[in-house]
Design goal:
- It is built from no helices and nine strands.
- A six-stranded antiparallel sheet has the order 1-2-3-9-4-7, with no helix packed on it. Strands 6-5-8 form a three-stranded antiparallel sheet, with no helix packed on it.
- By secondary structure, it is an all-beta fold.
- A hairpin with a 2-residue loop joins strand 2 and strand 3.
- Helices cover 0% and strands 56% of the residues.
Length: 103
C-alpha cells in the first residue's frame, strides 16, 4: 500500500490556467489537476480521461454539446475523435484527480 502525499509535491504547469501534480504507480499514474477560469484550451483533446471532481465546477465541451461536472461527480471520457473535448472552469477553482496510463 502506498500513501501519496500530493501536498508536498511541486505543481507542474500544463497549460495557461492549469497545473498538475503526478504520481506514477507502475503502469498507471494519479494526476491531480487544478483548473482556473483563465484556462485557455484552444485545441481539442482526444485523450481519454477517468477521474473524479474533488472541488469546484467545470464544463467539458464536446463537439456535440457541453456537459457540466460538479464536486463529487465522476468523469469518464473515452479516447478518440468522437469524444474530443475541451475543459472550462465555471467556478474560480476546479480540482480533479485522474487515473491514467503512463505515457
Amino acid at each position: 500500500m502506498n500513501r501519496i502525499e500530493f501536498e508536498s509535491m511541486p505543481w507542474e504547469p500544463s497549460a495557461t490556467g492549469a497545473r498538475s501534480k503526478t504520481q506514477v504507480l507502475g503502469s498507471r499514474q494519479l494526476r491531480l489537476v487544478e483548473f482556473t477560469r483563465e484556462l485557455d484550451q484552444s485545441h481539442w483533446c482526444e485523450v481519454g480521461h477517468v477521474g473524479y471532481v474533488l472541488e469546484g465546477e467545470l464544463e467539458i465541451e464536446f463537439e456535440r454539446g457541453a456537459v457540466t461536472f460538479r464536486a463529487g461527480d465522476g468523469i469518464s471520457i473515452p479516447a478518440g475523435l468522437l469524444d474530443r473535448h475541451r475543459p472550462r472552469a465555471i467556478s474560480e477553482l476546479v480540482r480533479v484527480i485522474f487515473v491514467e496510463s503512463v505515457p
